[in-house]
Amino acid sequence: KVMITKTFNIDEANINKRLDSFLSNILDDISRGLVQQLIEQGNVLVNDLEVKKNYKLRLNDQIQVILQFPEVIEDEPQNIPLDIVFENEDFYIINKQAGLTVHPGAGQKDNTLLNGLLHLNKKACELSRCGIVHRLDKETSGLMVVAKNHSSQTILTNLIKDRAIERKYYALVHGNVISGGTIDEPIERHPKNRLIFTVDQEGKESKTHYLVKERYENFSLLDVKLETGRTHQIRVHLKHIGFPIAGDKQYTKISNWKGSSEKELNVINSLKGQFLHAYSLAFLFKNESFSFSAELPDYLTTVLKDL
User: Fold this and answer.
1) Residue 208 pairs with which residues in a beta bridge?
2) How would you class 4 by CB atoms within 10 Å of its CB: exposed for 0-12, middle for 13-18, buried for 19 or more?
3) 114 burial type by CB count under 10 A (0-12 exposed, 13-18 middle, 19+ buried)
4) Residue predicted with more confidence, 154 or 105
5) pLDDT tens-digit profile of 131-173?
6) What pLDDT was estimated at residue 9?
7) What are the tens digits of pLDDT across the range 192-228?
8) Residue 33 pLDDT
9) Virtual torsion, Cα 32, 190, 202, 234, nearest 10 deg
10) For residues 206 and 172, is the Cβ–Cβ distance under 8 A?
11) Catalytic annotation, pick one of 137, 162, 223, 298
């Protein structure tokens, strides 16, 4: 196994926070449940001592986190058709099709965007996650930026961290949204179902802005702008305010609703995944401004026509 140790010193801003919530916030890819497991296994030390998960942090505490990873298995290059909208020496802009997973994980070992990138560019394997700096869910279509070299990966990662990449989406939701707004609610992995996320005051800060683009009888097409980019953020936030995304079987059990026609039911229930499309990406890179847009895929345009 590969072992990595991370060390954190506690400053004024983090005094009195619970150890587990501090760590799940600072270790971006690790859920609170996993952090609690690490603490129970003795893989988290405060001032060289084992403590409980609800330990309250004190000024100048030194926290050590020991992470163990299995030996890395090489990912295979695979000839997966990728729609490259733009490329220069620093990055690709890819219009990802719905149904394509971004990188291998527990549920899927290959046939991902990452395997396609390895086929496209042999040097991609030298980069962390082959240059992937942000993700789209498997069933979400649309634009992604992928780094081509170490320096562009650093720049793009920092742009995302600083919220300096403008990302906009179209989402078709159940219900009649009256006007635009902002959802500012923290998100955390669901305590019972680890595959989904939920609004939780102990979670990570998450902010979504939305406007109404088009209204249908029982649906609204929203123009959504991400300020933060948490996993499933748009899906969780829109469900939280009572307007779940059409076709999103993970976050809504609605398959029949009041006042809907048979045609409407057929159209929505034939969706293979959530109606969510990343249509716009814009950012400043090495003092040059870039902006890209991708039309809705045909099958989603058809859904709107049928509605």
Assistant:
1) 183, 226
2) exposed
3) buried
4) 154
5) 999 999 999 999 999 999 999 999 999 999 999 999 999 999 9
6) 95
7) 887 899 999 989 999 999 999 999 999 999 999 999 9
8) 85
9) 120
10) no
11) 137
Distance CA(196)–CA(191), nearest Å, equals 9
Beta carbons of 222 and 173 less than 8 angstroms apart: yes
CA distance 251 to 266: 19
| Closest CA relative to residue 61, chosen from 42, 46, 43, 50 | 46
Residue 253 structure tokens = 């059990």
Predicted confidence at residue 255, as pLDDT, reads 74
Q: Which two tokens stand for residue 185?
A: 């609610």
Q: CA separation (Å) from 198 to 110, 191, 234, 247, 255?
A: 28, 9, 11, 18, 21
What pLDDT digit, counting tens, does each position of 62-98 carry? Answer: 999 998 776 556 788 999 999 999 999 999 999 999 9
**DSSP-derived secondary structure letter, 173:** E
Contacts of 294-299 with C-beta under 8 Å, sequence gap 24+, read 294/85, 294/95, 294/141, 294/142, 294/143, 296/170, 297/97, 297/98, 297/141
Q: Tell me whether residue 137 is one of the annotated catalytic residues.
A: yes
